[in-house]
Design a protein that fits this description.
This protein has 229 residues and is an alpha/beta fold. The chain has 10 helices and 7 strands. The radius of gyration is 17 Å and the shape is globular.
Length: 229
Amino acid sequence: MKLVGLLGGMSWESSAEYYRLANELVRERAGGLASARLLLHSVDFAEVERLQAEDRWDEAGALLAEAATGLEAGGAQLLVLCTNTMHKVAPAIEAAVSIPLLHIGDVTAAAVRAAGLERVGLLATGYTMEQGFLRERLAGHGLTVLVPDAADRAVVHRVIYDELCQGIVSDDSRRAYREVIGRLVAAGAEGIILGCTEIELLVDQTDSAVPVFPTTRLHVEAAITAALE
């Protein structure tokens, strides 16, 4: 089994899900006492969030690139960036290491295409919904990506940072997300990408009339498949 480097802490709430899911999947596939070979570098998300808010993405990229080189030096053979938003700086990370980075956009797009869908709604942080780094990656796989309107984007973003990243899961916020999902479906979305790794803590397939694509689980499944090959 390859040693998988997890670059996480953005937030640690979802990185804990990466760790749990990875070990559950290895146990399911290998049986017995088998568990995942993982190396985790967990950053201080307060520092990363400050760089995001101040539009200092180059510095954020340098910070994560340095962490990634540490994972490679520790023996990691595959790199998993445990966040959608920070894939904005994926090129800086890839330039700093010689091991492959498993891009969350490619994994998600493959799942959507395998389901036979082309038109999807995207729920994510404001950065991910409004900037092109993930939407364009998905579009490169032939997908049409719809995002909520400005008011709905503000709600989705606020819940992620003010609640989910701080371990708060609210029924009111779940209802609000269901309404946003409903409006995306009404606008023509055939499926919904849960494009922030914390969103899976709040909503799942039961909250949507169309297929949902949970990026955390999809990312982990692809990583474990690669690790066990």
